[in-house]
Amino acid sequence: MRVAVCISGGGSNLVALLDEFGAGSDVEIVLVISNRAAAGGLERARERGVTAVVLGDPDDEVEWIALLERHQVQLVVLAGYLKLVPRAVIQRWQGRIINVHPGPLPAFGGQGMYGRRVHTAVLAAGLGETAATVHLVDEEYDRGPVLATVPVPIHPGDTPETLAARVLEAEHRLLPAVVRAAARAGHPIPLPEPLEQA
Ligand code: GRF
């Protein structure tokens, strides 16, 4: 399966995918897309010979569609991509775009709920655990069907930063598992088994 990974920042989820799916795998990461030239993951993709592109205008669906078509992308993975994907792209790749979210959905998602804000809200809610979540992307932020989650415990004294680090580790296991299942099925599917707690 030919996969594009979209990033905005550090790209640690991208690296987890690149590590998992090396040469000879049935998953080929053919393209990395960023809305920011400074996104650390771009260089890491290029080091491994993957085409890495900075969007001229992240809101321009023509640019997106041309890129995805040129690289014959079958699955789009949003891995820390922090902008809304243009509606025409979501429609064209319907059921073939997934996103990793660092908290339980739908409770801790939606516009403006990203990064530290998610962990701050989870801690404020006084829950015993949080989760890493992968879901299908539709036209609303964080609202598409959930495909898989990993529960992540909250420890006494956790801060948004300590919790973020624990959730990120869980994301690094969860996202490759969902991509592998998608490659086997030919399209994203819910994971048959829940992943073990982090
Ligand atoms: C992850 O926690 C992801 O869920 C969130 O942003 C973070 C991205 O991390 N949306 P990285 O860029 O993959 O290191």
What report would you give on this structure?
By secondary structure, the protein is α/β, with parallel strands linked by helices. It has one domain (2-185): Rossmann fold (3-Layer(aba) Sandwich), CATH 3.40.50. It contains six helices and seven strands. It has helices at 12-20, 41-47, 61-70, 87-92, 116-124, 160-185, and strands at 2-7, 28-34, 51-54, 75-78, 97-101, 129-136, 146-153. Strands 3-2-1-4-5-6-7 form a seven-stranded mixed beta sheet, with helices on one face. It is globular. The model has no long low-confidence stretch (mean pLDDT 95). The protein binds 5-O-phosphono-beta-D-ribofuranosylamine (GRF). The site of 5-O-phosphono-beta-D-ribofuranosylamine has 15 residues, from helix 1, strand 5 and helix 6.
CATH architecture: 3-Layer(aba) Sandwich
Bound molecules: 5-O-phosphono-beta-D-ribofuranosylamine
% residues in beta strands: 15-25%
Described by strand count, sense and barrel closure, the largest sheet is: 7 strands, mixed
From the structure above, extract its key features.
34% helix, alpha/beta, Rossmann fold, 198 residues, 7 strands, binds 5-O-phosphono-beta-D-ribofuranosylamine
Gist?
This protein has helices at 12-20, 41-47, 61-70, 87-92, 116-124, 160-185; strands spanning 2-7, 28-34, 51-54, 75-78, 97-101, 129-136, 146-153.
